[in-house]
Amino acid sequence: MHIFAPCPRGLEELLVNEFNHCGMTQVEQVGGGVRARATQESLYRANLHSRYASRILVRLAVGAYQKEEDLYQMARKIAWHQWFDVSQSFKVSTTAVKSPLRSLDFATLRIKDAVCDRFRADRGGRPNVNTDQPDQRIQLFLTETSATLYIDSSGNPLWQRGYRGAAGAAPLKENLAAGLLALAGWNDTDETGKPVYETFLDPMCGSGTIVIEAAWMRANMAPGLNRRFSCERWLDADRALWTKLRAEARAQIRPMAPQTIFASDMHPGAIAATRRHLEQVGLSDAVTLDQADFIGRGAPATTGLLVSNPPYGVRLSEQEELQAEYPEWGRTLKQQFSGWTAALFTADLELTKGLGLKPRRRFPLKNGALECRLFVIDLVSGFHRKQKPTES
Ligand SMILES: C[S@@+](CC[C@H](N)C(=O)[O-])C[C@H]1O[C@@H](n2cnc3c(N)ncnc32)[C@H](O)[C@@H]1O
Hints:
Rossmann fold; globular; VC0802-like; disordered C terminus; 2 domains; 7-stranded mixed beta sheet; 14 strands; rRNA (guanine-N2-)-methyltransferase activity; binds S-adenosylmethionine; alpha/beta; single chain
């Protein structure tokens, strides 16, 4: 199978490694995603284990097009009834870059018609459309001249790890949070295989997205173990293989050293949300959670990795209010976290200037449409006394 997996921009390399590890072949990165060849097993494995992919799409057809009728003919040729049953609902979505078509909605409608017509011809009936919670998702991707049709093997996007309610969208998508941790070095090991960072802290944890990903990474917990995937309902689904892969993933979970993962936030509502999410994923005992202001909470160990996504004001007045706090955050990092590495994810590209700290690395990333940076700062002992505030 040819697959394409979109991911947050900036995480493509991490995803290439992950897919290679899952047994995919011819893995190559493109802007905003990764292409590869997959077997049924590597496809299942990647859905279960991928921390960085947004979804995994299986390519069913690709070809040139000029008008909607070409798209209809392309979709009509696919034996949809061999993929899913007429009793399952489906949804078609279209994304396009420079498509000459006047209406993408109409293109979507023609694909839907083709799926239904083909089902009627082969099965004497058509599946229902469900735009909210479909059993199967079909994706049309258009460029100026070519059209690609995919079936989505994941279903709900892979950043939905299964512990938030439908309404509980995280401020930070879970796959982006996992990417921030990997870029910051949370998975790095020394020559003996020991993790470079033993202790983790998110001192502005919000609803707990980053700390849950951090704990799962340290525990080697497959992020898809709490959820299901659309490809489990395909007609060729191999239940025994799913059972084997899930059992394998469970057996790979490692115990975590006690008192190594910490999270805090100053707002009681954030603490309540994080506590609820930790309970839902069985991590209440593994994560030490406190309500505390970052200023003055202190470091929980002499060294460690701090990864956080501090508040960012959308309005100018909010931004100015927050910027007034930066020097205090900077002082806290310098005075209370020397020996630590801090990785801060923000849409304020001037954050480190305000903190008076010089980042060792800066990774350009996007949070939705928002241009962001992950600034990685080494807080070496005595470092702050020598450093003058520098341009970032
Ligand atoms: C952008 S949100 C973090 C969202 C989080 N990454 C998530 O996915 O849910 C920023 C958080 O910082 C917290 N915060 C702001 N100033 C703080 C401070 N001085 N000390 C501790 N927490 C603070 C806010 O309460 C908010 O929950």
